[in-house]
Description:
This protein is 30% helix and 26% strand. By secondary structure, the chain is an alpha/beta fold. The radius of gyration is 26 Å and the shape is elongated.
Amino acid sequence: MVIIEPDVFGDDRGYFFESYNQARFDAAVRPVRFVQDNESKSKFGVLRGLHFQCGRAAQSKLVRVVKGKVLDVAVDIRGSPTFGRHVAVELTAENKRQFFVPRGFAHGFSVLSDEAVFQYKCDNLYAPESEGAIAWNDPAIGIDWRLRPEEVILSPKDSTRRWPSARSCSIIIRTIMRRILVTGANGQLGNAMRLLGATSRNEYRFTDVAELDITDEEAVRRAVCDGRIDVIVNCAAYTNVDRAEEDEATADRINRLAVGNLARAAAAADATLIHVSTDYVFSGDANRPYDETCETHPLGVYGRTKLAGEAEVEHSRCKSLIIRTAWLYSEFGHNFFKTMLRLTAERDRLTVVFDQTGTPTYAGDLARTIFDIVESGAYAGREGVYHFSNEGVCSWYDFAHAIAAEAGHTQCTIEPCHSSEYPSKVERPAYSVLDKSKIKATFGVRIPHWTESLKVCMKNLKNL
């Protein structure tokens, strides 16, 4: 929620103030596409209950009063740490204050003057079939409407219908079905998302190239807009780092162009895009964990195209979370973990680089974090760039040793080697440890140590 105090210019002749400027609003608050301007008039004592619209009919509002005095109230009904808390703002013709109420909040008011005239903008039209409310007099919220009980005038809707309390409403809100599109669903992260999606009441639509070619902008637009998608989770990527050096066009098409298609479709549908990126956007010459503010400097085609994909998301101005991760592995697909399992079973001796340092990330842990963010609706209002990997630090040599030990492949001797001894078409980051402080603080995420998650992955692989 945002309270906007306008700059008023005046003298004895009168006054002037800018009641709305799209560019300034977008910069100061966030981009919102308002589709309707409304005006209403109410008399003293009118109390409009705490109403909201659900799902794709959810509304943001920008409210001001042009005559009289009003107490405007918004209550957080998102699955957030501030659930059930409220903000009350006095809006008058004299203070010219404006109140932005985003989606995910119940909104109501009481009229404190003889009469009041409101003007307000909405980013979605009225949809009575999607309307909900919470009790205006819920003691758990404890709103002081600044009216005596005998002064309160309620509409038939608020006076005759028994709206639920905020606590009960939290159950209702959580059962509102969202539509989630997961792209790249046949990959490591996508398969982990499939397992979690099967446990949800929400509608997950899993696609890979056979179902949806994300490089086809029109096909993406139809899938997102016509499919009324609320959240997109993009797990698709061109991840063959060496081959990308020879086939930059394909890497660019999947890692940049396709991401732009998803981002623009998300913006058009007012959906949220959760896009997975990589540690390869960094040069790897740091000596402390990279946080989200660190300068990017990719070393090869893969990193450059992934960074270009991030830029596409930002330029689209869609609601988005970009989650950078590193050293992803799982029981699915082709990855370092499964390669080491095979080689340490087949060979008596193996060399692995020890001068590249990072953190292995179990795809199941990243998928669980994304899933929890989507299921709780906590992504709303928390857009930005985040880092996620497991906890701890190791080299590829250390990781290989741990894999072999966990598998019981003790007959294979693993020796360290320099990266220069390992032929590669591209320079890889020597240091790619990510700082996870932001995602942990924002979403309350508990991240396991990589050695814990390795044991979980090994167990899950045996159970496949």
